[in-house]
Amino acid sequence: MAFDIDMIKEVYARMAERVDTARDLVGRPLTLSEKILYSHLWEGKPTKAFTRGKNYVDFAPDRIACQDATAQMALLQFMQAGKDKVAVPTTVHCDHLIQAKEGAATDLKHANDVSSEVFNFLESVSNKYGIGFWKPGAGIIHQVVLENYAFPGGMMIGTDSHTVNAGGLGMIAIGVGGADAVDVMAGMAWELKFPKLIGVKLTGKLSGWTAPKDVILKVAEILTVKGGTGAVVEYFGPGATAMSCTGKGTICNMGAEIGATTSTFGYDESMERYLKATERADVAEAANQVKEHLTADPEVYANPEQYFDQVIEINLSELGPLLNGPFTPDLSTSVGPEMTEKATANEWPLQVEWGLIGSCTNSSYEDLSRASSIAQQALDKGLKMKAELGINPGSEQVRYTAERDGILEVFENLDARIFTNACGPCIGQWARYNDPKNAPKNSIVHSFNRNFAKRADGNPNTHAFVASPELTAAIAIAGRLDFNPLTDSLINEEGQEVMFDEPTGWELPPKGFDVKDNGYLAPEEDGSKINVVVNETSERLQLLTPFVPLGDTITGAKLLIKAFGKCTTDHISMAGPWLRFRGHLDNIANNTLIGAVNAYNKKTNFVKNQLTDEYGGVPDTQRAYKAAGIKTVVVGDHNYGEGSSREHAAMQPRHLGVAAVIVKSFARIHETNLKKQGMLGLTFANEADYDLIQEDDTFNFVDLHEFAPEKQLTIEVVHADGSADTIKVNHTYNQSQIDWYNEGSALNLIKKENAA
Ligand code: F3S
C-alpha cells in the first residue's frame, strides 16, 4: 500500500491532547488551520501560544513530495546527509520533464529517451533511501498525492508551489525549496512563520456552468496575486461542504496564485467519499473518529470575524463562470459581453486557437467528465471544433478510468490530443512552435493555474485565459473568447442554430476507479546495497562534494560584485534554459549572478576582475578568483534574494568560492539558505556603508574568530588607494547556525552527528 495508515493513526492519536492544550494556551476556540499547525509542532505538545504573522515556529511535517525538476538537487543534497533512509515518508514524481507534442505514447517515449539519465537517477536514489517513486507518465504530483497520500488534518511539504493542492483533502500542505525538504528528510525541523488566517465563507451552491474553479478565480479577483501572502486560507460554509473533494483541491491549488501559504477545508462527507473511492476507507474511518479536530471549533465558523484576520464571503448561487487573464491570474472577466468589451478595448485576440484541459489544478475524473459532457454535445449537435483541444489527465488512474468509461473517446472523436499524464503545457513543456519568441499574437484558454507570459508555449504573444474545464471545452468548440454558453448559440454543420445544455458529470466514477499499472515503484526495504550511479561526464547530474568550512580567518577577500537595486533569486540563478542543469551544480553555476546589475557600470554580467583589471562575466571572474585561491564577497541592496526558495541561489556562489554576502537587507528564506550552505549572510549595521564599498575593495574580517549569536562582526574594507574603512555588520545566526558555518554546511553537521 502506497500510503501509511499507521502514521496517519499516530497523527490522529496525539491530536486531541495537542488541540486541547493549544486551545487553553491560545485562550479561545481554534480554527482548523490552527488545530493542524499546533498538532504538528516539532516540540510535540504545545507549550505556548504563537503570534500569527510574527513568530517563527518549528514544525514536524508528516510527508514530503518532490517533483522531478526540484528533486534532483534535493536528493543530491540528501545523499550528503549520511542517512540510510529518509526520516519522513517521501515520494518523488516524474511529471515536469515530459514535453507535450504529438500525444501521450510518442511524447512519453521521447521524454524517456532524452531524460532517462535524470529519471534513472531519481529512481535509484529513491530506491536506496526508502522514497516512493512515481514513474514518468504515472501522473502529476499533486493529483497523485491527493489520490494516494493526502489525509485530513495532516501536514506535508513539497518542493513545488502547488503542493497546496492537498488542502482539498483537509491538509496543511505547503510548497518549499529543496533545502527545506532536505532538512526534513534528514530528520530536522521545518521552520515557518506562524501564518495569518483568512476565512472564506462559501454560501449558496454551485450549479449549471459554475465550477469550483470559478470560486478561486473570484477569490483571486478579490485578493489579487499578493492578497494571500503569509496567510492560510480556510474555506467553510454550506457551499464548501456541498462541493466535491477534487473541486476543493482545485480551489486550494490556485491559492498559490494569490500568494497564500496554503489553503484548506474542514473534513466532510465529500472527503470521506473521495477517500473511500481511492481505496482508503481505513483513513476515512480513522478520520471519522477524530472528526471534531478536523474542522474548526463551531464558534469559529459562527463568528468568523472574531477569529480570522480577514473574512471574505462568496455566495456560490450568485457566482457565474469567469475567465481570468491574460498574463495574470487575478484579472477576472465574466463570460459574454464583458469579455467582448474588454478584449476589444485591450486588443486581446477574440479568436481562440487552443483549449487545454488538465494540469494539477483541474485534471480529476470529475473535471474530465464534465468537460466531456460538453464535448459529447458538440458531437451530438453536429458542431465542429473551431480551436484545437488538448487534454492532460492528472494521473494514470484517472486516465485509465476515463478511458474505460468512454470519456477519452469523446474527446478523441473531436480530434483532441490526449497528452501524457504530466504537466506538459502547464510548465512550458509544449512543443507548439519551432520559434516561440517570434510566434504570432493569439489567445488560448486553459484550466491550469498560471498564465504568465510565455508560461505555456514560450510565446510572449500568447494571451492565456484561465477557466474551468467545462468552460474551456465550450470556448474551444466555439473558438471565441467571448462565447457565453449560457446565452449564445452556435451554427452547426447543417447550418442550424444550437445551444449547449449545462455540463453534467460525475464527482467520482460510478463504476469506481481502476488502473492496471499506476506507475508506482515501492523502494527496497534495505537499500544499502543499491549503488547510485552518476556518470562523471554527465551534463545534467553531478554528485555533490561536501563544502569545506570557510574558517574563522577571512582576509584579502575581493569584491565580486556590488549588486545594484533588485537582486532576486532569478538574478542570482536564472531559470529558463538553465533548468536543464538543476542537478549539475558546476554547470548551473555558470549562470551565477548573471542577472545582477553591477552598481559601478549598471551592466549585467560585467564585473571587474581585480587580478587582471579586466572586465568579464560574473561566473568567469569568480572562477578566476577561485583558481587563485582567493575568497570573494558579494554586496547587495535591500531584500536581496527575494523571489523563490531556490537553494541553487545559495549553493552556486558557495560552490564557486564566495565567502560572504553583505547586503542592506535579506529576503529571509535566502538568508537561511546561505546559512545552510555554510556561508556568511550579513547585513550592514549602517545601511549607508553600502556606498563606501568601491570596485577594487578587499575585505578583511577582523573578529570572525569571535563569531557568536547577537554579536556584530567587524570588517576592514581596504580601498585601491590604500585607505580603509572599518564597518560593522549584523547577523542573525543562532548557535546551531554558527555550527553549520563552522562545519561547512548544515548537511556536513548532520552527517557528523549521524556518524557520532
Ligand atoms: Fe505541473 Fe503545472 Fe501543476 S507545472 S505541478 S501541472 S502547476
From TrEMBL:
One of its GO terms (cellular component) is cytosol. The keyword Transmembrane does not apply. Keywords: Iron, Iron-sulfur, Lyase, Metal-binding, Transit peptide, Tricarboxylic acid cycle. The keyword Lyase applies. Residues 34-479 form the Aconitase/3-isopropylmalate dehydratase large subunit alpha/beta/alpha domain. Pathway: Carbohydrate metabolism; tricarboxylic acid cycle; isocitrate from oxaloacetate: step 2/2. Its EC number is 4.2.1.3. Residues 559-687 form the Aconitase A/isopropylmalate dehydratase small subunit swivel domain. It comes from the Bacteria. It catalyses: citrate = D-threo-isocitrate. GO terms for molecular function: 4 iron, 4 sulfur cluster binding; aconitate hydratase activity; metal ion binding. GO terms for biological process: tricarboxylic acid cycle. Its cofactor is [4Fe-4S] cluster. NCBIfam families: aconitase_mito, PRK07229.1. Belongs to the aconitase/IPM isomerase family. This is Aconitate hydratase A. The lineage of its organism: Bacteria, Pseudomonadati, Bacteroidota, Flavobacteriia, Flavobacteriales.
